[in-house]
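Q: I have 114 residues here and want to know how they pack in 3D. Can you give me a structure?
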Amino acid sequence: MVTYKDFRDAGPYVGGFKSTSEMSIARHFANNVQGLERNSLQLGGQPFDTDVACQLAVQLTALPRVPVFLLFHDADEDLPAQSTILFRKDAASYLDMECIAMVASCLSVWLQGG
């Protein structure tokens, strides 16, 4: 799995990806891990095991052959909530960078009930 910024051609889109997808999910679901889990499951998400310390790890299928992995760290007294969206390395074989960013943006909206 890789982050969006790890894709070779992602450079021009990284800032928008971060703000419209990852930061949007983190802000909306801060102190509401149960709500994020519920909404993820309603979208067909499945929990997955990871070695990364987080409160929620879920895999969603955006498109055939393009799973999306969401890691969520809730806010605490020292740090704000943080979400990380990961893709398989081969996602760029199926979609260009704009489309991958749009997948994450749509996921963010859908998770938030839009």
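Q: Anything worth noting?
A: The mean pLDDT is 95. The two ends are 27 Å apart (CA to CA).
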